[in-house]
Amino acid sequence: MTNSKLTPGSSLDPIYGRPEFARDIPRGTFPEESMEGETAYTLINDELGRDIAPKMNMASFLNTTMDTWGKNLVIDSLGKNFIDHEEYPQTNVLANRICWMIGEWYGTEFSSDDTPDLWKSGMYGSVTIGSSEAVMLALVAHRERWKIRNAGSSYRNPNDRPFFLTSTHVHTCWDKFGRYYDVGQLYVPMKEGHWKMTGSDVAEVINKPMKDSVYWPQIKEWCKYPDSYDPGTRTVGDLIMVVGCVVGTTYGGLSDEVEEIGLEIDKWQEKHPSESIPIHVDAASGGFILPFTNETASQPVKFNFSDVPNVQSINVSIHKFGNTYPGCGLVVFRNGSYVPRDLIYDISYLGGSFTDFTVNFSRGSAVILAAYYNLIRMGKSGYRKIIANCMANATELITRDEAFKDNDSQLKILHIHAPAHNPL
Predict the structure, then answer these.
(1) Which residue ranges in the chain fall short of pLDDT 50?
(2) Domains in the chain and their CATH numbers?
């Protein structure tokens, strides 16, 4: 194709007879001239033909479609900047209702001073871009509480730094958080026949004296302890700001033993009454499944605030089994006081005053409103039917497909996770 400068084509010309289709599509240089909207649309749409249809994508675990009324609501809301609560106050109210509904579902403890529309006493949660932002918000809160709890403690070493403890099957956002927010990372390794984190896994880590732990070289380097420092009987648990549990792992659908992990933390805290190790539950995939499969499971997976006292925060991806278009997740907390006040911003330069607890600032409102639409349009009964079909299809796939019975370890993982063996 030629790169010579040509005048823009006319809307009267056949679309593929226009000069823009005889030269390269703009790539690295901001073009000087305009072109017809139909021309730009066709150029881009033709190039996107290299992508697969979203419904054929089974690798990202995201929802790809909504009904007509949901789509209409999305289109109607595309121009709304969610962060501008002064101009779009009711959009913020609906976001609060989403957090309240999911929080109530998971057992959040609400103050009698608050309502689903208006929170006066604290921060119960935030609607986010997805679970990655939700996880990071939760971990920011846990890190800050760890710092506050340990500030000025004579028991502490000045070089102590916080770590999170989780397993190697967590989402990459955990590693991102550690790198971006300067937090140490301890991972329980997964291996053949051991694809979920158990209570004994966590107990082995947090109860181990630092100097006897396999993590000691990593801890010593991260905290920059001098060679002369002897931690004595101090345990690894002293440095754990949060234990991260996953319900509905990416690799096979298993869930970490949240309840058993909580019991082991209780035992550790009995020996360290001035210390506290909270649990964050990453329910990106399982958060919209387990509440329904637990209803009929012989061994329900306990993971929420009502089930496990140590759980202080939970994230869920609404754009997965919440059936909203990509770009919507949320984090909820046990109560409105868990997020330290210093992390909640008072925003006043958009024409009014409001509080904010997000990593992002400006963002669209469309998928947030779509999430609220789904919750009230489908209700629990609608979601229950969808999840029942998903589980029935998963069972059929595993039962009929001989590929799941071969010796490849990843397929073996999927094979043993049929609903008869695991609620997710």
Answers:
(1) 2-4, 407-424
(2) 1-51 (4.10.280), 89-415 (3.40.640.10)
